Give the backbone structure.
Amino acid sequence: MAEKVILELKNIDKCFIGVKALDSISMDVRKGEVHAIVGENGAGKTTLMKILSGAYPSSSYSGEIIIDGKNVSFNNPGQAQAAGIEMIYQEIDLIPDLSVCENVLVGNIRRKNRVLVDWKKMYDDAEKILDKVGLDADVHEKIKNLSTSRQQMVAIAKAVIKKPRLLVLDEPTSSLTENEKEYLFNIINELRNSGLSCIYISHKIEEVMEISDRITVMRDGCKIGTLEKKDFDVDLVIKMMVGRSLENRYPKRNRDIGDEVLKIENLTVMHKYIDGKKIIDSASFVLKKGEILGIAGLVGSGRSELVNAIFGNLDIEAGYSIYVNKNKEKINSIRKAISGGIALLTEDRRASGIIPALSIRENATIVMLNRMFKTGVIKRKEETGIVNELMDKLNIKAPDVETKIKNLSGGNQQKVIMARWLLQQPRIMILDEPTRGIDVGAKYEIYNIINKLTSDGVSFIIISSELPELLGICDRFVVLNNGTIVREFDSDEATEELIMAAATGVV
């Protein structure tokens, strides 16, 4: 007997100001399956899901949505949710100043009567659903005080509690640790066994193959094909995604590592809210000219706090030393770090990287406006010329420098932020999760940019939750566990097993 199809998308077409974003897309989802959709940024995956979730009304596209054999149309997300469709976007959609409990149960308030909220039941129910997704968090805590990974788990809990028929997950593990990913996969498997269907969007090919039953590949707004489980193959999927083979996912480079450019001694950072608790405990390491140093560790190990302290963004306890080019520096502000030749690309490019309403030009040059002023007026021609040059150098794909950065793919947004810091001519670049949510082709381009800059003498500190990525591009590694550097490895001795063992405190 054929497996029951619960959802069909037929001949979906969508245009944006004359540009065809989706070209006659047709696919289906079976009851109780995980159907993955993969493709490079700009392939049309999220656009298709916004149509399915009602974010784009039925009048804005052509084609059919069929659920259980019946044609439906959605003009807002509420209508899609009423039909049993829940969407979890890559960019977390929670209310920062509300508690974990309030975010999980928003729209499902427990009441004693028509007026009073039953807070005891609210907290009890929230704790139960958090336990189901494997998240140990205080339900009273405000969302804004949680890390990105823990916020992601709250968003998943918020969707699961509504018991949807179809759950759409857009890059759900982009900010999760390996353990949190396993919890999520266990949840997805339980939901699949109960008959719920999932559409799973991710750039992590191996992860997609592990969790999904079928994979649909999209490229440039078109459906390239759908693979059954028995036909899954990494190289085939990548070739379908990018239209060509990538012989080596991590490009080789000629390593020319020089003298020490940065030395950290006894750097300690205290917790903002818990007296006596150390987030970073006496960290010491060195970075050399033209070197790529990887910082590994689980989420919560202190990786981001370490680099933010070096960048002057967190207070450091007395007794530390920072040497830049063997000169002792007192870096106690971001301004001091920048003047010392240090740049930082943050973990969350939307929250603390890009300025969505501004253009590529404005985002790129915002850190050097003092150099662009002439008699109180910005030298627009010079500014535009500089940004055009960087767009060519970094292969930023956009119509022109005046394009709003919010309209770019994740990979191109990241390259604009890199362009911003390159205008400062840094000697040390710190990249915190530089390829999160970025497709395999864009990752390859960013790796090439990093390699080119190291050949020019720039040094890198890179944080990534993807160990294969760190192993593929770094020369040396330091591993954090609970705020302490527990091991260092050279590239010729490091393995995923050794790094993970150190990160979890096994060795």
Remarks:
- The chain has 18 helices and 22 strands.
- The chain has a mean pLDDT of 86.
- The longest strand covers residues 5-16.
- The radius of gyration is 24 Å.
